[in-house]
Amino acid sequence: MYFIYEKVSSVTPKITCLLFLLASYSASADESLLLSNSEALKDNQIKTETRVVEVISEDEFDDEVQELPSLMQKLQIEQAASRNPYVLLPHKPNYFLPLTYQRSPSNREVNRALSQFADEPLEVADGFDHPEAIFQLSLKYMLAENVLGPMSRIDLGYTNISYWQVYNGDISRPFRETNHEPEIMLTWGIRDYWVDMIRLSLNHQSNGQNSTLSRSWNRVIVDVTSVVDSGVVSMRAWWRIPEANSADPDDPSDDDNPDILEYMGYGELSYLKLMKKHQFEIRVRNNLNFDENRGAVTLGYTFPLTSRVKGYVQYFNGYGESLIDYDRYQERIGVGIKLSDWF
To answer: What pLDDT is stored for residue 112 in this prediction?
Structure first.
């Protein structure tokens, strides 16, 4: 009996220990399972949580805006999306014209730049072609809202328009000209009997070049917009911030283009007409000088292609199509696609 007792007593602690370990493992497993379930539940709650976003009520728009559902919807979505710090919004239209034809391509500025390094004037053997591609990328980011009350905001915007000699293999298909346009804008949506929006902008435009190829100017722009019958009228006026009067290409502090207002004018009038899913646009500039009158007109027609992409036809006639040729008359027509529109 003693031997048996010793055997039993020696085994019992081992069995007890094993049972304790199993119980501990079971409790630990239950605890892990509970913790895992708790985390899964919390994760589920996060995933299924609905974010409440305040949008502009339809009652806050006047009758003319309510007659343009696409414009009203864009303003509502834009306000809601702009509160997300990771969102960049379309600013001006974003489009790509893979085929355009310009009537009078010019090598004037390239020849001037080459002649700086020679004792006599030089001319490029192979110049720019009539056909080229154009694309515009334009984005904005909201910095602050409700600065002047409801429907007012401050945005930082950037627009890039490039002229690409993509079909000109003889000179390695260069980008002939690229214009950069950063600006900071204070926009105020109001409900007046004829004004729907006022925007004040501090605007810089440059082609990013140096020496004789450099073009730039700084402006303060006031934009007054009114919604009319199935369309939008916008009147822009600008004041150029003064620079040095001389135009020395070797001095970066000098004015690259002292006579730019004589060609670009002091403002722009535009009208956008919405016809169901089609849109027609006209923009007009003029220097208001009857002795040496110069200006420009841009016509645009947008039509549906797919649910996300629109077809786009653009015609330009006048001065100031690009900064490098602001003082040259140009005529152009182009076709392509538009990724985002005014509304």
So the answer is: 62
The predicted structure's pLDDT at residue 52? 53
Residue with tokens 């005529």: 331
240 membership: H or E segment, kind and range: strand 231-240
* 106 close to 128: Cβ distance less than 8 angstroms: yes
Residue of 181, 196, 178, 97 whose CA lies nearest to 139: 181
Which stretches of the chain drop beneath a pLDDT of 50? 1-27, 29, 33-35, 46, 48-50, 122, 125
pLDDT for the residue numbered 106: 80
Q: What is the model's pLDDT at position 66?
A: 55
Q: Look-up: residue for tokens 């003319």?
A: 64
Query: DSSP alpha helices (H): ranges in 61-142?
Result: 63-66, 69-82, 108-115
* Domain map (residue ranges) of the chain: 82-340
Q: Looking at this protein, which amino acid is placed at residue 99?
A: L
Cβ neighbours of residue 306 closer than 8 Å, sequence gap 6 or more: none
Q: Which CATH superfamily groups domain 82-340? A: Phospholipase A1 (2.40.230.10)
CB 211 within 8 Å of CB 256: no
